Amino acid sequence: MKNSLVILGLALIVAFPVSAGTPLTGKVIALDAGHGGGETGAVGVCNGAEVIEADVNLAVRKELKVLIAVGEGTAHEVAQLSSRQDRVADAEAAGSDVLISIHHNGSTNTSADYAQSFVTQKNDKIFAGYIHPKIVNALELPDKGIKNDGYGMTVYGSLPGVLTESYFVTNTDAACDFLNYQNGATNTRVQKEAQAMYDGLVAYFSANTGGGRGRNK
After folding, report:
1. Please, are residues 59 and 186 in contact by the beta-carbon 8 Å criterion?
2. For the CA atoms of 57, 61, 62, 67, what is the dihedral angle to 10 degrees?
3. Superfamily of domain 23-207
4. What is the pLDDT of residue 208?
């Protein structure tokens, strides 16, 4: 009888194998929705209705958080504090492996539209190299590249991070697209952007299995 139970147990293990996980399993991704806390960011207009960048940033974070959870990772929603340095400290305190600071651009030219990302240090650029091209391809926008700059959240702390400016909320088509998203449309820029960021995260952690804490000058 004992041998029969052992055989049965082995059969169950074969029938229901333990999940091998995904590249995001056990990873903590800090998601900063830029602005907020009374700060609107850029403001677009569609048929007289305003589209606030801070709202777009939150929408992308919400969609991306769901995807990360499905991928067995953990999304940490960075607190919308007034200081960028404090936001990074919040992400670090959560044990995050990487940081995405989600932003969208603005211009007085309502036809302006392109994708751009910003980094500060070496590990940021490596990380952004997986995220930014996915956004460009998903949104099919002109690519202004990954720029080194001394502002934004990537200046602070020890996390590999990227500040994304995926498109212009002041672009009329983009503003209208966001209103469509709020009205329940699918396959909008918000969903495409979130999926692109998720795909970039999977690619990054597939290539960097040890995670990303720490930063090289």
Report:
1. no
2. 150
3. Zn-dependent exopeptidases (3.40.630.40)
4. 80
